[in-house]
Amino acid sequence: MYEKDYKKEYKLAIKKIKEFNRIVVFRHQRPDGDAFGSQMGMVTWLKDNFPNKEVHFVGENSITYTDVMYPVMETLDDSFFDQDFLAIVCDTGDTKRIDNENWKKAKYVIKFDHHPAVELYGNINIIENEISSCCELITDFMLFFKKKYPISKLAAMYLFSGLATDTGRFQFSSVTPYTYQIASYLTSKGIVPIYDIYQKIYLKDVSSLVFQKFVLNHMVFLEKGIAYYILKDEDLKEIGITDERGKEHLSLMSNIKGIHIWMCITEIKEKGEWRVSIRSSRLDISGVASKYHGGGHMQASGATLYDFEKEFPLLVSDLEALIK
Ligand code: AMP
């Protein structure tokens, strides 16, 4: 078990799962591996262990992951949500980021998350912001009931996918001995070879190299230890990628001596906004991200700029102030 004790919440959560016949599992917008992995891990575990219940999953699809690693999302008619259902929301700190507004109609809400607890929107809130990933937390929950409700090979594969991606394949500071225990348990379920999972998640096409070339040619380094690249709409078109992939090469700027904060800024033209992904080696960037319509973790946060010319220099100087 994880060192923190969530027994009371876990028991209440399973009681509620047993109570409801209709369950919908949600997660955050612009999903990453942990959002998809925790959502689909939960869905699979529920379907395996509670076969008489109606279990659904909603949210947008992803160009990178859908149909490669995770199934196409369901589209439920709005009227579906008019009857009682339990909402389980994974990996989402605040309500504005829950992908699908219908979660609001749920009779009861269980939140599983590892972002800072900005909003306690659940009836049960199982939140641990020091744990590496929502998948690690959800696996801990499932292990608590493992004798009665086991984790199948497929559920383990989804959970492992989120664990691996949110830890950058077990290299981030959030990784603890317990993370490895969870990884060991999930992989011992006989999931498909780990190599195959990594192939699904990380295999890229040639456009990724074209993109990488662009990033290397356009990276900007600031004296105080910030690095970034900007992708305007015209750049995305020239490279041949969608804005969703903008952050794909962020890690090119990690582990570079003297670079304390790095980020990418991607224009989303149809919305008139610029999406920023910020990372740092040690500094807590989440406060600055919140100031610019975002949030996230201490070392990995996201923000949105609505007036690029005005806000970008301010964002940079706020980040520089952190370095000082
Ligand atoms: P990203 O740069 O999109 O990979 O996001 C990094 C982390 O920050 C992820 O854990 C996101 O869930 C979180 N995050 C991104 N955008 C926001 C936001 N607007 N509000 C709160 N958290 C966010």
Summarize this entry quickly.
The chain has 324 residues and is α/β, with parallel strands linked by helices.
Q: How do the helices and strands line up, and which of them pair or pack?
A:
Blueprint (H helix, E strand, L loop, with lengths): L6 H13 L2 E5 L6 H17 L4 E4 L28 E5 L17 E6 L10 E4 L6 H11 L8 H14 L10 H12 L5 H9 L3 H13 L1 E3 L3 E6 L1 H7 L21 E8 L4 E8 L5 H6 L3 E2 L3 E6 L2 H16 L1
Parallel strand pairs: 1-2, 1-3, 3-4, 4-5, 7-8
Antiparallel strand pairs: 6-7, 8-9, 9-11, 10-11
The protein binds adenosine monophosphate (AMP).
Assembly status? single chain
Global morphology: globular
Gap between N and C termini: 39 Å
Work out the strand percent.
15-25%
Low-pLDDT sequence parts:
none
How much is the radius of gyration in Å?
20 Å
Order of helical and strand elements: HEHEEEEHHHHHEEHEEHEEH
Total beta strands: 11
Q: Class by helix and strand content?
A: alpha/beta
Biggest sheet statistics? 6 strands, mixed
Number of helices: 10
Strand order of the largest sheet: 6-7-8-9-11-10
Which ligands appear in the coordinates?
A: adenosine monophosphate
Mean of pLDDT: 96
Helix content: 25-40%
